[in-house]
Design goal:
Pfam families (chain B): PBP_dimer (PF03717), Transpeptidase (PF00905)
Number of strands of chain B: 25
CATH architecture of the largest domain in chain B: Alpha-Beta Complex
GO molecular function (chain B): penicillin binding; peptidoglycan L,D-transpeptidase activity; serine-type D-Ala-D-Ala carboxypeptidase activity
Number of domains of chain A: 1
Radius of gyration of chain A: 21 Å
Strand content of chain B: 15-25%
Strand content of chain A: under 5%
Number of helices of chain A: 14
Structural class of chain B: alpha+beta
CATH superfamily of the largest domain in chain B: Penicillin-binding protein 2a (Domain 2)
Oligomer: heterodimer
Shape of chain B: elongated
Membrane topology (chain B): Single-pass membrane protein
Largest sheet of chain A: 3 strands, antiparallel
CATH topology of the largest domain in chain B: Penicillin-binding protein 2a (Domain 2)
InterPro entries (chain B): Beta-lactam/transpept, Beta-lactam/transpept-like, PBP_dimer, PBP_dimer_sf, PCN-bd_Tpept, Penicillin-binding_protein_2
CATH class of the largest domain in chain B: Alpha Beta
Largest interface: A-B, 56 and 39 residues
Radius of gyration of chain B: 33 Å
Structural class of chain A: mainly alpha
Distance between the termini of chain A: 20 Å
Number of strands of chain A: 3
Domain Penicillin-binding protein transpeptidase (chain B): 284-656
Helix content of chain A: 55-70%
Strand order of the largest sheet of chain A: 1-2-3
Helix content of chain B: 25-40%
Shape of chain A: globular
Chain lengths: 386, 696
């Protein structure tokens, strides 16, 4: 791990400037991904929109706008003292829960692809509260698990239970949408936060057990909607259903596989331009990279993610206090599992869920949330013990 | 940060690294290791073939007159891509176009569905082509209506009109030749499955029977293929290949239009005369073959049908009529699919059998009114006693009883019901020498082979039917339980596996279980005429390319030689001449100026017609001519037509009249079909100008 030698370099450079606290490697990797994502979103939508007599740059423009908004949100998340953020944590959490409740009220929530996960706003914009709920859960849990009302090494069982309530309420609300992908990602992040909080390892084992039993039971008792079961089944046998979710998975794999080593070249993918993969600019954005940039390009993207995650782990490890460490770890786990879930689904390793790919997928809520997450990482980095 | 937290963080970090490595591994598998599979899959998702059929080659007679050509029709087509974009999926447009064209909406709907869109059990009429080419709903639109449609595109979006080639059988000189030419039709899912060993492109028109089927691979040409790349909505984004269709080659046949027309009318006339005489005359066949090379100069089957009926749009009712018993199954070619007992025409085989058995052909034989065979008396034809006559005379007047005696004597010599180990079987061997049990190998599909009721056949038959005859009283229907039939069943059960005396004597006069096709008999008489060569009959002479090059010549092929010495053949030829000069054929050929040789046949048929009357005899006349230097073998058969001489004999005479240009007893060589007396050898020139105006 190069972080030992790299540490001294950027600590020296960052001191006292307006970029104080910015991790250059992390920032650079995110910036490169944002540029690649912009090109991929454009590639995914350009021909199709032109062919249907629509503005070919429709998605491009909105994507760039989303990035600009997201970057300013990241900026805000960076410069605010996260110790101050702690004071606002209940408000952030409360807003997240409120959003999730509004989504479930008929008439206010918009149903897309079988899940009621969006709130329609005027001007054709939509907000996905579950994305922002991820941040409120991470921040809220971190606050509870890092506060020490007593002189002990780690959080007590009472702290853990409180933290689980903080995470549990939004998760239950998301289950009602239902958005299994987000539930999976949040659950994985929750377990990770508790594991890192210093709480008894029995909690970790128990939570993992509950997660497994819960997933099994949900599938058995029908808590998961038939739409979800279909998606899960088509993961097991993608050739069974030619037009539904199996179709999407098969098309996704064919599109990625047909890219080969070098790809067809940006904007030149016949599968992409023929729009054979539905939702290609959002959940299946990675197929564009697969087809047009080939193995070299798409493996490069995975490596960029690996760099981001390794930097994030380094930030967590060197965080100035338990709160910062837990926030950084939570964000890292969120990114890692969401990346794995999304690309894994595209490549046929994971069941199909509607989860966007951080920094690449088109979609405002996801872009804002991931950039705020990125901002929080920078924030923790800037205030590491030094 | 304590040690445990540090460790936990490390575990999570390693876990996350593992996940990312798993993604990289999977990515490597999909994009590098398994990439070729996915590249293929992507290509098949994106590309669609549009087939434009090639122009089918002509079928012409030996002088170049077209028997099958292509007519220009006006097709009204439906663009499915355009229709599917409409809010009602084109229902309104299809409805109004059906009404305008006077077509049934349900039929039009079916015709515009891809076969995959219709349920498995009900695919009739579906479109075998792709969605990307215009689907024709009629090929014979009125030009006024077509103009209306083209002018009012806003009212009929997705409907177009294009000229298309329609297969047409022009019927020059009123020729029909439906069974020989066959017909074409759209390729079906079954054809595409490759069951018949041929490969087709979707939406092609292919030969279904007859010459159209036999020489389809030459006639069809190579269709043009345009491969387009489409998107998910099936809109064409670009074209990846485009090959032009290559026209099919022409087929030159040995048929002659005028002779064919003459043969068809002679056959129809024979049927008419038989019916006037009170016979059902349900079907018939007539064939003219060149005895030197096996080429079929004319071939007709009765009843027939209009070969253009398929392209005109065959209704289900029409199609049923083609195969209905009531109409005599017009679809069946009697020439090569009708099996009938050959009767006295088979005595030519018996002559060779007797000669090979050592009988003196020039001796005198007894022709009594009946011959006692075991306990049964076998009658002569009409129970006439003709006394002691020469063998030649016996053939000329068609004496049966002299053959009974010879066949019975030979049967006894071979051991009778306890056959010896070294059988002579002169009669069976002579028939085998004529290849009675084999196909003629004509170049037309669906030919049936004859049935030679020899010892092996009888054994096989017994193995199959023993159970029925030995339990006859339980198995047979009530109305079949007559004393005679019960006795017959008992005998069949007892020794049905053996050739009995009755079987042997019946065999010698072409009765019993032996049956052959009219074409087989033509092949046999051609062999007698040409000195013993069994030739493969052929309808095709050559394949000629559109630029006039001869691609393939179909030559003569000898399949075998008759098991007869030259002396035997000479005797037989003389006897067949005497049939016409002083025998059963004399009346039919009285005053005919050219020497013809032949043999009558009147075959008894057992069983009853649907209306309960006993079946009438099969009328045969097998012949060749001229007697000196024979050129043509001519055979006519009329099923349930009655006497061989009066029905088929007269019919064959009419065929020779056309062939040689005979009126009454005068020959006019200018009127002969082949002015120099020989069918043409040269391959005629075929040009589009040869097209003859459609007469129907």
């Amino acid at each position: 791990m190069s972080s030992l030698s790299a540490r001294s370099i950027y600590r020296r450079r960052s001191r006292g400037s307006i970029f104080a606290g910015f991790d250059p490697i992390l920032t650079g990797a995110v910036a490169v991904l944002l540029v690649i994502g912009t090109l991929l979103v454009y590639a995914a939508t350009r021909d199709w929109y032109a062919a249907n007599d629509l503005d070919p740059q429709y998605y491009l423009k909105r994507h760039v706008l989303n990035i600009l908004i997201g970057v300013s949100l990241a900026w805000g998340a960076t410069i605010i003292d996260y110790r101050l953020l702690r004071a606002y944590t209940p408000v952030v959490w409360g807003l997240g829960v409120l959003g999730l409740i509004i989504v479930l009220i008929p008439g206010l929530g918009a149903e897309i692809n079988g899940a009621t996960a969006w709130i329609a706003l005027p001007g054709g914009f939509q907000i996905q509260p579950a994305e922002l709920a991820k941040i409120s859960i991470i921040v809220g849990m971190s606050m509870i698990l890092s506060e020490r009302t007593h002189d002990s090494d780690g959080p007590t069982s009472r702290d853990v239970l409180q933290a689980l309530v903080v995470a549990g309420l939004p998760v239950v609300l998301i289950l009602f949408q239902p958005d299994m992908g987000t539930v999976f990602i949040i659950s994985a992040a929750v377990v990770t936060i508790i594991a890192i909080s210093g709480a008894s390892s029995r909690w970790v084992v128990a939570l993992l057990l509950i997660a497994v039993l819960g997933a099994f039971g949900a599938a058995k008792t029908g808590v998961i909607s038939s739409y979800q079961v279909n998606r899960l089944q088509s993961f097991v046998n993608p050739n069974a259903d030619t037009q539904g979710s199996g179709y999407q998975l098969r098309q996704a794999r064919i599109t990625v596989g047909s890219g080969g080593l070098l790809g067809t070249g940006l904007f030149n993918g016949p599968q992409t331009n023929g729009r054979f993969v539905p939702e290609q600019q959002t959940d299946f954005i990675f197929t564009v990279a697969g087809e047009e940039l080939g193995f070299l390009g798409s493996a490069g993207i995975v490596l960029l993610y690996l760099i981001i995650l390794m930097r994030a782990f380094a930030i967590a490890r060197r965080a100035g206090d338990p709160y910062g460490r837990l926030v950084a770890t939570g964000v890292t786990a969120w990114f890692a599992f969401q990346i794995f879930e999304n690309i894994g689904m595209t490549l046929g390793l994971m069941p199909m869920t509607g989860v966007p790919l951080p920094f690449l997928s088109y979609g405002g809520s996801s872009m804002f949330a991931t950039l705020i997450g990125f901002g929080l990482l920078q924030n923790v980095h800037a205030r590491h013990r030094g | 940060m304590n040690q445990r937290v540090r460790l936990s963080l490390l575990v999570v970090q390693i876990f996350v690294i593992t996940l990312m490595v798993a993604l990289l591994g999977r990515l490597f598998y999909l994009q590098v290791a398994a990439s070729p599979i996915y590249k293929d899959a992507a290509l098949s998702i994106q590309s669609r073939d549009v087939i434009s059929p090639a122009i089918r080659g002509l079928i012409v007679d030996s002088s170049g007159i077209p028997l099958a050509l292509n007519r220009v029709g006006l097709a009204i087509t439906v663009d499915r891509i355009e229709l599917d974009k409409q809010s009602d999926k084109g229902a309104r447009v299809l409805g109004s176009i059906s009404a305008l064209l006077g077509l049934n909406y349900a039929d039009v709907y079916r015709a515009t569905r891809l076969c995959g869109e219709l349920p498995k059990y009900d695919k009739a009429g579906c479109w075998t082509g792709s969605r990307y080419q215009p689907i024709p709903i009629t090929k014979e639109a009125d030009s006024e209506i077509a103009l209306q449609i083209v002018e009012r595109t806003s009212e009929y979006p997705g409907i177009g009109a294009i000229p298309v080639a329609i297969r047409n059988y022009p019927g020059y000189a009123q020729v029909n030749a439906a069974h020989e030419l066959g017909y074409v039709g759209p390729v079906t899912e079954e054809d595409l499955s490759g069951k018949n060993g041929r490969s087709y492109y979707r939406s092609e028109t292919i030969g279904k029977t007859g010459l159209e089927y036999q020489y389809d691979s030459f006639l069809r040409g190579t269709p043009g293929i345009r491969t387009v790349i489409v998107d998910r909505k099936e809109s064409v984004t670009r074209e990846s290949q485009n090959t032009q269709p290559i026209s099919g080659n022409h087929l030159v046949t040995s048929l002659d239009v005028h002779l064919q027309a003459g043969v068809e009318s002679a056959l129809a006339d024979a049927v008419r005369r038989a019916r006037a005489g009170g016979r059902p005359a349900d079907s018939g066949a007539a064939i003219v073959m060149d005895v030197r090379n096996g080429q079929i100069l004319a071939m007709a089957s009765y009843p027939t049908y209009d070969p253009n009926s398929w392209e005109k749009g065959l209704s289900v009712k029409d199609a049923r009529a083609l195969f209905s018993e009531k109409n005599g199954v017009p679809a069946l070619s009697r020439s090569l699919q009708g099996l009938f007992a050959p009767a006295s025409t088979f005595k030519s085989v018996s002559v060779i059998a007797a000669a090979n058995a050592g009988y003196n052909l020039n001796a005198i034989y007894d022709c009594p009114s009946e011959t006692q065979i075991g306990t049964r008396a076998f009658q002569n034809f009409d129970s006439k006693a003709l006394g002691r006559i020469s063998l030649k005379k016996g053939i000329a007047v068609s004496c049966d009883t002299l053959w009974y005696q010879i066949a019975y004597d030979e049967w006894v010599r071979d051991g009778g019901l306890r056959p010896k180990s070294d059988l002579n079987d002169y009669f069976f061997k002579a028939a085998e020498g004529f290849q009675v049990n084999k196909k003629t190998e004509i170049d037309l599909p669906s030919e049936l082979s004859g049935r030679l009721a020899n010892r092996q056949w009888r054994k096989d038959w017994y193995a199959e039917n023993k159970d029925f005859y030995c339990n006859y009283k339980d198995r047979a229907a009530k109305n079949q339980l007559t004393p005679f039939l019960i006795e017959l069943a008992r005998e069949n059960c007892l020794d049905g596996d053996k050739i009995r005396a009755g079987d042997a004597v019946n065999f010698s006069i072409g009765q019993g279980d032996t049956v052959i096709t009219p074409l087989k008999l033509t092949q046999m008489y051609a062999a007698i005429a040409n000195g013993g060569k069994i030739l493969r009959p052929s309808v095709a002479k050559a394949i000629v390319s559109t630029d006039g090059r001869v691609i393939k010549k179909i030559g003569a092929k000898q399949l075998g030689t008759l098991p007869a010495t030259k002396a035997t053949l000479n005797f037989l030829q003389g006897a067949l001449r005497e049939v016409v000069t002083a025998g059963t054929g004399t009346g039919a050929f009285s005053g005919f100026p050219i020497a013809i040789s032949g043999k009558t046949g009147t075959a008894q048929v057992f069983g009853k017609n649907a209306n309960g009357t006993a079946k009438s005899d099969t009328s045969w006349f097998a012949s060749y001519g001229p007697t000196q230097n024979p050129r043509y073998a001519v055979v006519m058969m009329v099923s349930q037509g009655g006497f061989g001489a009066s029905v088929s004999g007269v019919g064959v005479r009419k065929i020779y009249e056309v062939l040689f240009g005979v009126t009454g007893s005068k020959v006019d060589p200018a009127k002969a079909i082949f002015p120099d007396g020989k069918p043409p050898i040269k391959i005629p020139k075929i040009s589009p100008a040869t097209k003859v105006k459609a007469t129907n």
